Batch of 4 targets.
Target 1
Amino acid sequence: METVFSRQKHHAVSNYLSSLNLHPRTHTQISIICVWRYSISFLNLDFSGKAIRPNEEPRKELHLLYTISILAYKAEYSDMAALNANGTLSCPQPMKATSNGVFQGDSPLDFALPLAILQICLVVLLTRILAFLIRPLRQPRVIAEIVGGILLGPSALGRNKHYLNKVFPAKSLTVLDTLANLGLLFFLFLIGLELDLKSLRRTGKKALSIAAAGISLPFLLGIGTSFALHGTINKGVDKAPFLVFMGVALSITAFPVLARILAELKLLTTDVGRMAMSAAAVNDVAAWILLALAIALSGTGHSAFVSLWVFLSGSGFVLCCIFIIPPIFKWMANRCPEGEPVDEIYVCATLTAVLAAGFVTDSIGIHALFGAFVVGVLIPKEGAFAGALVEKVEDIVSGLFLPLYFVSSGLKTNIATIQGLQSWGLLVLVITTACFGKIVGTIGVSILCRMPFQEAVAMGFLMNTKGLVELIVLNIGKDRKVLNDETFSIMVLMAIFTTFITTPLVVAVYKPAKRARRDDYKNRKIERNDTNTQLRILTCFHSARNIPTMINLIEASRGTGKKEGLCVYAMHLMELTERSSAILMVHKVRKNGLPFWNKFQQSGNNQVVVAFEAFRKLSRVSIRPTTAISPMHGMHEDICESAEQKRAAAIILPFHKHQRLDGTFETTRTEFHSVNMRVLENAQCSVGILVDRGFGGGTHVPASNVSYSVTVLFFGGCDDREALAYGARMAEHPGISLSVIRFTASPEIVGEIARVDINDDYNVSTESTDKEFIAEFEKRISNDSSVKCEERIVNNAAETVEAAKEFSRCNLFLVGRVPQGPVVASLNVKVECPELGPVGHLLISPDFTTLASVLVMQQHPSPVSSIGGPTRVTEMPAVDSET
């Protein structure tokens, strides 16, 4: 009896299946079906169960191959095809959105909405845990998200089929992919907002040369590597699109990831950082153009002109956008002035334009992401409009939907497909080629551009950064059947490896030159012999809440009103986060010294500008706004380095707690407490901690209306002398009345302390210095009726507190952080906030009723070696008062 499946014909069908480039699971399913078909062929039955004649065998073979193709298509693309008992195809019903609840017998995992919620929660939880674990390694969060996606996929947890079928069943992947790609659409829009075309036009020849080398050499090496892959593990696909996809994948530099690595390493405003950012921006744009070409070449149309039409249509779309989008959005931006909230209709119109552009490019055959990216690039970056768009979109996209894309990629990544020495050898080849092309090409051109060798090597490692854009290229290639499972897994592992090694290699090879100690940095404290020299103060603030008190403190510190008497650097402390807007802020700060700031309902930036402008006009003080944008664990370095660079005599920091309406203190952010403590430990000048209780009220008080009462509580020691020196400076202001209370212990207390020998620190030399300083101060203010100096002899702690309470109606207390002397030893105050010291803690305790603000001073004892390293603080031109 002749059968359909002779040995030769069965071999032909197997080759046919191999040419379909199917998933291994799909190939197995089809093979089982072929065996079933082979068994019924012995009965001379056709597919409907009817007997056939021998001369109908060719028709049956054709029908069989056609059926196998249909089954392959169904299983590969929907993975939902199933065979009934009679061999016909059937697809399960799509998932309903919501369930009736477990009490009515419904399982939430069988319905789209609760299953999607579970998937999102699982993804966010795992990626955040991984990001926390790799934070000490200073790795970008994209590493945690890619690895988290792989762990949730078939490479790790997905090996448990029960878990995979319940949590990530095949029928739910359509919803998951849709949410992931929608989030990715808006994230590409945000990436476009980060790229400033004007800055690209200003890119120098050096950055363009480095970018060209960083693209061309890896692209050519990627094409060469693709021949090895195409001939071994990626057979059966068109060679041209595969070569281009491989070249693009190996030549990409992830611009957003690189920006965060530079910021984490505090290189963003160094020469290397600026060069790397410029070259990466050019590389990013070129990579998108090459990817558009690759997508056009990977079209499945039968005509040779289809790819040409796709490319020309995409080019026409970009040209239309260039002429249409900028004028429209510039008109919208002009109708959204600084400091006012952006009209909701403009935000909705922009987001709709992003979706429409994505629809157009998807219809053309490029990809929906290109349309969103083009809209983001062409939106004007000036003004508050771009920042408002970032604030509206970024949190939910970056924090919630974008991790879904990494999981979607992880579900497609099966490391188990990399089997055998050949496959692992190809993985090593791809990694070596990717690193060699980027690093060697960039180093070579950088040296030709006369960059120092150390900086050139750092540039090579930085330009080797991969990330989200790499995954986008790989996913598009897999969706277009250009990359199979094994090649896809190899490329994903390559992206993880190259990004992971960037930070440690840059740290190892690039040691920024430490800033030499300034020889002219002599006045590191307010207490000085020559009181006529200019006083430089670095005041820091966290938010708009701190600004009125800080400005009123500056006004009180300006002394006699001499133009060169006081110079103030007002530094806004901003945390560098994973959010794109943080990188936008860095670029804006580099331009004008003020942050790109939209945190306070679009009015915070306006409040800062108005406050400083009013102060400039109403006083004779030179004020220079600066900004420090860094992670919390390194913010103190920016503060200390900036103070040394500006030769500041004192740093004024806000206390990390603010007063509530009931008088108690509430912690703003605990991280700022650590920042303050590190500044106190590392600052090369005096430091003051300001506890704000509304000094001068909620607004700036003009100089002619200033009427403040300042009290200095003097116990002894260098910190108390610094507080008194600052008070003496304030006393020069005509609207300031100063009261100095010097606490002296009664002979009984002195004798008791001497017997138990509690306070060795307060030695004879310190006491003598205090007496000389007090005597000199009393001599200077002998003819000044606005200054009162009195001595209080106390017998115990209760008398000390009562004496201080007599001045509770003042506006500001000035105290030392570590007072010395026998009176302090008798206080025995439990200090919960060590940055305030015992007296400062007493003044803010609930038992001490006062509305006065408190400034706690710590004096820098003597000049020591300066803190090195590059500064990340940028400065705008001085805003001097008018002569």
Target 2
Amino acid sequence: MTMDPDLHNTNTVFVEVPVTPNPNAEASAPVPEQETKDKVGHSPSGSISSVSSSESTEKLIKSLSMGKLDINKDDEPPLEPFTVSPIQPASPSVSSLLPKANNTPKPIKFTVRKVSRDTIALPETGKAQNKEREYAYGNLPENREKAKERKSAEKMSQLQYSQAKYDQYAARIEKINKEVNFLTNLLPPYNVEIDYVTRTKITKAIEKLRMKQDEIEKKKYSLGISISRLWREHDENEIFVRSVSGEIDSAPLTRHSTNVSELSRILTGLRDDYEQDAAEFELYKSRPVPEEALIEQLELVSPKSERDDILEKLEQDDHPIDGAFAFWQAVLAMLMVFSTWGANAAFGVFLNYYLTTNSFPGATQYDFALMGGVIVFLAQILAPMTVLLVRIFGQTPVHLTGICLQTLGYFLAAECTKLWQVFLCEGVLVGFSFSLIFIPGTLVLPTWFDKQRATAMGIAVAGAGLGGLVFSLSLNKIIQETGDQRWALRMVGFITLAVSLFGGTFLRVRTPKKSKFKDRFNKDFIIKNFKIVFDFRCFDNYPIITVGVWFGVVLIGYIIILYSFSSFATSIGLSHTQGSNILAILNASQVVGRPLIGNIGDFTGRANTSVAISIYVIILIFAFWFNTTTYPALIVLSVLMGSAVGVGSTMAQALAGDVLAKMGRHEKLPAAWGGLNIIVSCFCLPAEVIALKLRRPHSNHAYAHTQIFTGCCFLMGLILMLVCREWLVRKTFESRRSQAQETLNSRHNMHLRRQETPEVEDDEEKDNDQLLQARVERYDRLLGGLLIYFIIRMFYPLRV
């Protein structure tokens, strides 16, 4: 059907239906208007009945759907007329229900994303179409000059803003340096009146300032690189992306984020932790030693007159901190250790003599071994009590008392004829004297040193190895010439008397106490000092107990090696002289090894050093000592073993300080120091007895079981230290995660003022936020509660 265009003015509705052409039929003539009106039934009123419309529509749709509509059929009944009521809404248009043949193409919508500045080229030739269209709209010569000037102005403005920001960073760093210097001057040794709690708060404040300074330094460095890049761009020396036509594109090369591999993410995390370790290194290195913390805590309960005298003495003192006189005091403290632990290091010579001779009838080998254990037991367990005696009576009376007991013990032991007599003299009296002699010396050193404190303590503890070297060689020579141990004991008494008197005469406290004796010898003063030293509430957690047990187990192995090396040499066919030489070499190696272990621990982490040394000693015991049968091999073993076997006494107190620092309980360090001495004394008492009990005298390998037990002691110590290390690493992760999250929260809550050209600052802040967010996510993973994360934290490369 077709629709006459003249009928548009009428109200008659026509339907245009696409018709398939019939080649056999003739072309249909157009239908006259009047005839069409008669067929359709045009109503003058201009309306169609709604009822008829509904019925007609249904019929029409049905005929169309059945494919029966054919205009060539003459017998098709005409459509029934229908009208639209002016009152009721019209029914849907019939034409809208029929398919429309619309061949008009739809318009294509597009959006201009970028205006090309390259030359417009023809697809066929690749050349420009004409001179008028050689440049795009934004690349016209006059527009290019304006854009270049505008871009140059923008870069200059950005440079000025970045340079101002760089100067602000430099000013903030200088301000932080002044604040750190001011706070440092409030700490000892510049100010000894400050209490330990306040000192801890100031130390934490310095730590935060240092970390803030490091963060600003990183920003300053990053901003400096950005400024350098902007200057190069301003001078048109930057590398640009070049177009095909050789023109310079104005946009420099940019970075795009890519997918980071798992290995790269791990390496990035390790590098981030390494940078944080470097930032915290100075605080870690300057952490106070137990003796220093003990002095500071005890000064809190000193009478006011005593503190005034200390401040007056500091003002008049002409000997600087870390100076030559301070190192002279370290040498004197080494002489105190030489007279005590150095002389005890040569006890293996006496033990070897007692085991191979019948000097005291009825005595067993276990009696002599127990005597050596008693010396170490009393020296360790009485150390905290000696501190109280020094506080009450002063350094000199306590020191002289110790010298008298030691000299009396050695001289009386030379005259003893029964076992209980030599046990009382050489065991009990000498053990009592040890703590009274060396404790005052170790308490003096922290008052003279600040930056070189670790070196000074290393010099002092080196006296143990030096004394072992001297006494091991001389005692064996005297025993061989005299035939017994009597003159050897007298010689030890003479040497220790002379050395101890010399050291005690020139050893001087930097802050001498002038308070009256009645102010110190009273109930309140004694109780306050007793609570400081014997406050065992610091042992209410497993890490500090782990350190104590580790110290005890490792010290058992140390005592067995120290007391058994000489007798082991004779068991494999060597002479007594060779056995004493082996022991001397072992002690000489400690002179170098102990200070070296302390310095390595300060740089690489004390727990890390303890783990590494434990593994090293285990390898030496099972792989070297177990298979040693010749004198040269035993000499090499003595050198290697002596440099590391004293790791327990070198690192235990420092490890306790690290654990308490992670717990935020620095003030408990003196109590931890006293508690560790008490714990380890219980391990020292049966150490050599166990070693001799495991010995098989009639076997070809008499010390095989002893060697296995010693190796197991260090293996147990390794396991305990790994557990302690896991705790230290976990606490470090928790602290760093909390700090990173706190920084992120503060940045999110901060309303930054926007500048006109904030691109550099925005990129910098975005990078820092991404770094902190990645740090938080990494620590969340590493702090997982699964066993695999526990093992990862044990071996995670971190300075702890």
Target 3
Amino acid sequence: MAGPQLSPAKAILLAVQLATKADIPTLQSLIAEHSKTLHRELVLRILLSHLPETVESSKYVSLLEDLVSGGITEDSKYPANAHSLAEMSEVEAQKKVRKLHLLHLKWPYAPDDDPADPFFELLDDKAGVNLLLSRTGKEETGNETKSVGRDLRGLIGPWMYGDSRWKRRKLHRNSEIRKQVAMPMDDSLFANERCVGWEEVFQWVTTQAAKSWKTAVEAVEQWDGPGDSDLGSYGDGIMWLDENDQQHLERRYARAAIASAYLISEESIEALNGADRILSRIITLMDQDRTPTLQAAAALLSPVFDLGDVLSEKNALHLRNDLLSDRNILTSPNETSLRLLHALLVSTYICMKTGHKLTIRRAGELALLQNEQEQGFTLSRLMMSIVNGPKEDDKYWIRVRNELLWLRSWGAEELSEGADATKGRGILGKLSQYLIETEILKTLLKNTRRYRLVFKQGEPFKPVSLRVHGDPISIIGKVLEQNPKSYAKINDFIEMGQNMVKAGLVARSVSGHTKPLDADQAREQESIAEKRVVSMCIDASLVEDDFETAYSYVVIRLRNIAGPAQARTPEPANNESGLFANVPAQAMDDWSWRAALQAGKYRRTTFTTKPSHLGNASGNPEIRHLEQRMECLAQALRLAPKATLPEIINVFRRCEEELETHVKQEAEQEAAWDAQGDDQAMPGGFAATPMRKNATAGASRAAEEAPLSLLDLSVASAARAQRSLAALSVFRGNGSGASNHNAPLTARESNESSRVATPDSAARNTMRKRDQLKNAAVGGLASGIGWLLNAPPVRDGEEDEDAHHGSP
């Protein structure tokens, strides 16, 4: 316990210590024990100066209530302990009290109805709104826009709807009216004066739309207006205003939202979708018919109904000034202004989707001013973007035509509005329909005979670029890069290159002017252009993983047109004597061998185009690809200069090594397949003994793999021919008479006996289907040229039968 003997100075110091520690219960006991020293004003100053701001208000609200009512009682559970001040003298305690510098209460016991509250009355509405919303939308947590609605409801609402503050505004308004009775004023001015605080909030929202449109969009989506306030546990959390005030604030809020949509200055699809979200939110709050999304509206192209007097040139001034003014017809919260805003949003979306960047405010100026020159410039920019579209997509061109015509009239031709139905009123309304149709047709016709080519972003190719370019043939390479699969039209590009030569674009003088060429020089330049174009097409096909096309260009095109890489031949030293003629400089083909080398270096991937047919090539794709690469490298060896031969030979050697490896693997796989197909693995057969089986297989495979000389091949062919002729004589004997009716049986018995007695019977038993076909072919060949091999003549049936019986 602090005890009654505690001096006033030490009691004050102890109260300061307890307030600093936020020990409210002990402080309450101390105040009850020393109520004369710690009176109400002193305690409030101590709390104001030393109580931490992080303490929750629920912990000290009860203390303040007891302090105001005078019912503070001492709690025996929390006694005040003054042991920390026991050793301090009274003089030292008084010195420390004088150095406390407690904050003063500006208005110690201000009544609730006092009109001069110093805390808020001296703070104007603009400063209050800016202070309360100074950090709104600027959090660093990644959810900056999620707190906008929370701050508008929880900070602005309670501050604006303070009981005395709202009442004082009404009193202030009445006093101003009494002072200016003689001056007639509009009711809207009175309403704006009465709601000057909310006007600052609306101004803040529109300012955010120009700076950070995401904050403005989230403010409109998360906040329903001045009626949406979070007062916490005070009352029911809902502020009930006068009907006139409520309607006025709702109209002002809707006007601020529409103005925010016009003020979004970012030229992107995302920002445009944000403006559409604002429009959808306002339509919902105003209970209007919902509009389709921008994507759906651009696909439907629904007609825009009558806009009345909104489409007027004088209203264009409202796009720049006084967007929140009640006289601004464009931001007025009604059905006509919302319909106009939606039409401008769809028009802007169509332009940006095509490639021409535009803002909502700029689209509004085109629609309101109806300046033919500005609209013509906009159409030109649109056509420049459209020309780069797909060339063979009919649906694309139909859609583009419908969209451009809708931008002109906003679908007026679909409405029954009399003679004015065909009058343009959109962002291209001043242009005639004939002009737009003509531009579309011209672009469509040009697009069918040209390729896409862009030097800089947003700047299409112009014909003058060919004349000023230092190497016009290199432009063909850019065309191949920007147009996929265009390398297949190699004849068109060769013709382009040769036309450049004929136009005199490749030969220039020192000053840069076109230099005429004679017939030989023109043919040489055309040949160079063809070689360069073929090399460019080979490189382009390799970039797009079409090796088959590159290979065909190398073995067909380059073989016919390419020449060896040659340098300028030096002039002889005795040129002045006249004994030697000047050797003309030879052109250097430095493109063909490089293209062939690049084709030879190409390796198959999963993205490589598969061949359409194999022809006589190997069925193994790796072996076939390596063989094609070696052909390309061989072509490069024929064309390349001597200095580059080692590099090409190294690549060729690596291809050979890979080819040998794959061929060896294929042979091993074939041998394994042959072993799997032997009679030993035939289903339904009798299994032989292991030793005999291995010996038979080894002998058969040894006989197959033994090399044959030409003499051995001739003897084998003669033997097969004899067997064929003998079999033929047997079949011929069947039809000779009744005396030979046993010949087939005798032959069959002879065959059966020979099948058992012949030493190589096992080899014949295991003969494969492929070997049978080969033997039949060789036998037929031997029978046809048997007279060259001294084959015996065909014997009669009897001699043939004796021969068969006499065989071992």
Target 4
Amino acid sequence: MIPQNNDLSPAELDELLSAVLPDIPGHRVLRLLGRGGMSYVYLGIQESLDRQVAIKVISPLALQDDITLQRFEREARTIAKLQHPGIVGIHTVGRADMGLLFYAMPYLSRGDLSKRDLRDDEVQIIGVLRALLAALDYAHSQGIVHRDVKPANVLFDHDDRPLLTDFGIAISKRDRSRMTGAGNAMGSWAYMAPEQARGERVDGRADVYSVGVLTYEMLTGSLPFHDEDSMALALMHALDPVPQLPASKAHWQALIDRAMAKQPDGRFASARDMLTALDRIALAPRVAPEPTAAAPDSVASNKANAQPVQPRASQVSARPAQARFARWPLALGASALALLVIALFAVLWPEPSEVAPPRAAPISAAQVSAPVSPPTIATPEVAASPAPEAEQAVSDDAALATADGTELAPLESGSIEADSGATDSANTEGDDSAGFSVPTLLPPGDALLLTAGEQIRRRRLTQPRGGNALDSLLEAKKLLGADARLTRLGERWLAAMQPYVAKSLAQGDDAAARRMLDSANALDQGLKLGKTEAWQALQDDVASVVRAQLRQALARKNIDALHAAKQRAARLGIAASVLEPEFSTPIITARAGGSLKHGGTSMVLARLPQADRPGLAVLPSVVTHGDYAKFVQATGRGVSNCLKRGAMVSFRDRSWSDPGFAQNAEHPVVCVSLVDAQSYVNWLSRRDGVQYRLPTAAEWRSVTGVSADAACGVAGVRCLPNGTAKATAGTVRVNGVSSALGNVREWTAGCNGCSTHPSVGLGWRDGAPNNRKDGPLKADSGYDDVGFRVVRDVALKEVESR
């Protein structure tokens, strides 16, 4: 705590430092050089040696408690012991009036890396990186992690050599007190490793990540990730792939990809390893680069308070100095919001290993410039995304294989499962919440978001009851209301569920898939996601499986398979409208020429029904004498006058039962009028329960294939000489329909109220010379060579199955 020998609060004292030069023991303060988020830097003279120094005074706002003050003072003294040609040393560490902590270091007037544009100078980029990596390797060997590697902390001395400075937030690996406080991240967000942003314990690989970002920036003039919001920026570092370099810089891609791996284990194990990979690039032949266009204004703003790298005065033309790498202030313990941001980052990554990688011996200054044999840059394997989870419990040793052969980790149903591709064994024993904790300073709703994110990561989507991400998100919704963070986590939950739903469907476990879908719908409705892209993708995946099953059944005309697919859709809760048009597409189970039977009447399906017109079923032959006798017996129908076509005389002694020539039950009935035929049709319709009718002339010709100008003795048409033969006599079509051509003519559907009506076909009397009579016939009279047949319309639903 700041000694209480004055009446100024930390905020007032901080404001005073920006306007009044402090009294620093043993130093004469000349002027303020600048300020950052945690300190003020002054130009001064060290009186004992009469030399210019830069004096850094830690802001009172950063030292409002004894723990923080002790940590900075102890670490400053630790860093002061670092002796390396690539590190700006510390001359003095002490306390000024009013308890202000300060340290003095050499004053370097050549500026920092943020003022130089090295995009077209790979030689100098390599030189800067060599110096930084050598300095970091030495610091790491001493147990010190810098944690704030960025251009503003790379200064150039009078000989234009790059030096690493500002170890002000560095931490010693030997200090396990964690005095930074749980959940506090320190450093510059634009260059910060994901695990550092989460406030986790870090090692030298966090510095390697920052060097990777710095390398990308020196090569391109812009940061790999840009966003004005610090949380969004940290999410990009954690989740987004490293952008691809321009083709002319592609030989750097493997080095940057590995340095910026999301997980520490995927990076170079040490700064020494990265330096070895750098030497490979240095020794590789290069084509002279093309001139690089000036960085666009959008990059200058950088969305992360960073501006384009400025050119080096000694190598490129001068440009207006711009404060490109603005600092990212973070008051220690002063903002609960900052703590929340850090806590929420923590849900996105697996727990880091507490075991630091093996430490190599420090690199000497001679080794930096010494030639080396070309090493190999190993391209890191991209770790699979955390495997999605299913709702049902799966045994620990049950791995689910996806369609492409990738194994999905078992789902968690109470115990904590590790992410696919990595096992966090240290955190899977004992309490099932081991391995992550919610900062107690968070509001309840924000704490639930953190918990939900961790549960998603650990595949606890819907199980165990009361300890899963679904419950946590729905409860957080009650506390937070509309919150964009809920939407993002809801999207992650849905994306995590998706492959397990697909796997259950592929294995035929529809019950499990339905439970998952019900949970997804509950999440969508509870969070009011509004059918987001992830929700729609989940629904589309399920629908596509059933749709494929429907299409296969339709193609094979397999009605049982079609019904099974529709039943599956119902089990899965898929609306029929989602599966259109396949769901409503019928299977036509009948074929042209096939048989249709209603009651005791068998007919031939002469024409298949379509959506816009009915089909046509027809008796395969004309109505027989025997069939008409059944009608007369059932109805008591009397006889009609029987005439000879073309004659005015009525054969009153002739009737359907005795037409004047021998007949049996298989012969076509004759001597029946059009009125008799219609009466027969009505009786048969009542008997069979379907609507029969007489065919039209066009229908008759279409079914029988007989043209209007057919004649006896022509084209093989034979007309009988003396009476009828069996009803099946005459030309027979492929579909089994007999035309009765040359046996009897046939009545066709007449017009209402017409007294005369034509007939179709050829009867046995048409065979005599000059005896063909095609005139109209009386509708109320029968004729001894005219019969009739029955047809009916066939609806599509009669011959299809849905």
